[in-house]
Amino acid sequence: MLARRKMSLTELSERVGITMANLSILKSGKAKAIRFSTLEAICRELNCKPGDIIDYTDEFDDK
């Protein structure tokens, strides 16, 4: 979504008010949780819906 909006991670970080480190964790898929307010701010800046940037996977599918 960042590429589609031609926005850098740095620019999104500044617009949303979240650290680059935390955005990197979210982007890599390693985050265990996200606050609704953070998700809302990211979606507002990227002009998208949560489903456009979040993918559900069942962590127990591999077992």
Describe the overall structure.
This protein has one domain (9-53). It is 51% helix and 0% strand. It has helices at residues 9-16, 20-28, 36-46, 50-53. The longest helix is centred in the middle third of the chain and has 11 residues, at 36-46. The mean pLDDT is 90.
Explain the layout of strands and helices:
Elements: H1 9-16, H2 20-28, H3 36-46, H4 50-53
Count of folded domains: 1
Number of strands: 0
Average pLDDT reading: 90
In sequence order, what are the helices and strands, one letter per element?
HHHH
What is Rg?
Answer: 12 Å
**Multimerization state:** single chain
Sheet/helix structural class: mainly alpha
Q: How large is the share of residues in beta strands? A: under 5%
The geometry reads as globular
Summed up, the helix count is 4
**Main sheet summary:** none
Low-confidence stretches: none
Keywords:
63 residues; 51% helix; mainly alpha
Could you give a short description of this structure?
The protein has 63 residues and is an all-alpha fold.
